[in-house]
Amino acid sequence: MTGLEIGLISVGMIIFLIYSGMHVGIALSLVSFVSVVIQTGSLTLAMKLLTLAASDGIADQTFAVIPLFVLMGLIMSASDVGRDAYDVGDYFLRPIRGGLGIATVSSNAVFAAVTGVSIASAAVFTRVAVPEMLRLGYSARFAVGTVAGSSVLGMLIPPSILLIVYAILTEQSIGMMFFAGIGPGILLSVIYCLGIVFMAYFTPGFVYDKTGRFSDPDAIAKSNPKDEHSLSQILIKFLPLAGLVTIVLGGIYGGIFTPTEAGAIGAMCALILAVVRRKMDWKAFWKVLLETGHITAAICFLIIAATMYSRSLAMAGVPTEIGALVRTATDQFLLVLLIYIVVVLILGTIIDSISIILIMVPLFLPIMLGFGVDPIWFGIITVIAVEVGLLTPPLGIACFVIKGSLDDQRITLGDVFIGAMPFALMMLFVLALLTTWPHLVYINQWM
């Protein structure tokens, strides 16, 4: 059996086991273990591979960045920071047609800069933004779709868990991945906002509910949030957010501290803010710590399994054979990239984001490097393509989280998926832009 055959069979088996209900980490490690046994005929060698992967896979201190940023994000989520971000956006943007949708996108972009977890954004803004949008006459599908679409910003705008996992897996600088994520994150946010304004003017039946409180969309624009919040109150809500973003990201890009140190400082500042605002007691803090441990353990287990998988592929010579096959079949880089993106989009409909990165990147990164591709750019392309899967059936995790967080049972899961579809299409548009003009990944260098 050739290395290429082993690689193709292993990928097929992993997808089959995952789709059958097996945990991703177990599927990866099991298939890797069996693959090494088949290649070497030695059970002992396969056991040693398992042991080394477990000990070496997450031994580097760089992995400390994962629990620290997860902890910071969960504390900020528990501190009603999402509600504050939405209040700020709502105050300034409600007068615009489709303004609450734009406010949701803008608030999620800010929230992403202090959490880095898409699922947290989806859960928070489902409770904060959706009821307000429904009250003011927006359609249910538009409301939940806007939350679903903007929640993916948490995996692109740093600090992002997906960017951290990609950086660790490919041995890239976490700081550089964060830096590269800013421009595309802003670009996607702007495209979302422009898309919302376009829909509000040209497809008002999708954006507004004619049976809602306002029958005329212009009536929504005339509603005045200043009755609820004064400008000084809004500024008080915004300053902690701006301060935390400045401390964490400014510290990294300014060379004051490393990403790991930034995670620790960010978590400490978030905890101080939560205590000062009386949003965190010992019981709530213990709950956050437990959830941080659960998330970190799950991610680290996946990374260990991915280390086994990568080593088994390398042992079989899969990356080399696939690279040679691709270069023999075609020398068209865009065709190879298109195939990669299509495969990732298909996988996004059945398995979660981290799993796709752990499965696909070890296979395709060597091929891309053979074409002289910048691995940082390739990482951003991968993350965006993977994140489309959060919005597409049958496994769109963000859509399931939104449905589970809704108090209104009249809104079905189908409504969530339909509402998210325009935003998935906008993500594909941004993906095409970044593929056509790779330098847009570093657009923040021009600002």
From TrEMBL:
Keywords: Cell inner membrane, Cell membrane, Membrane, Transmembrane, Transmembrane helix, Transport. Its main location: membrane. It comes from the Bacteria. It is found in: Cell inner membrane. The keyword Membrane applies. The keyword Lipid metabolism does not apply. GO terms for molecular function: transmembrane transporter activity. One of its GO terms (cellular component) is plasma membrane. It is a multi-pass membrane protein. Residues 12-439 form the TRAP C4-dicarboxylate transport system permease DctM subunit domain. Signal peptide: none annotated. The chain crosses the membrane at residues 6-38, 58-78, 109-130, 142-168, 174-203, 234-253, 259-276, 288-309, 329-347, 354-371, 377-402, 414-437. NCBIfam families: dctM. The complex comprises the extracytoplasmic solute receptor protein and the two transmembrane proteins. Belongs to the TRAP transporter large permease family. This is TRAP transporter large permease protein. It comes from Yoonia algicola. The lineage of its organism: Bacteria, Pseudomonadati, Pseudomonadota, Alphaproteobacteria, Rhodobacterales.
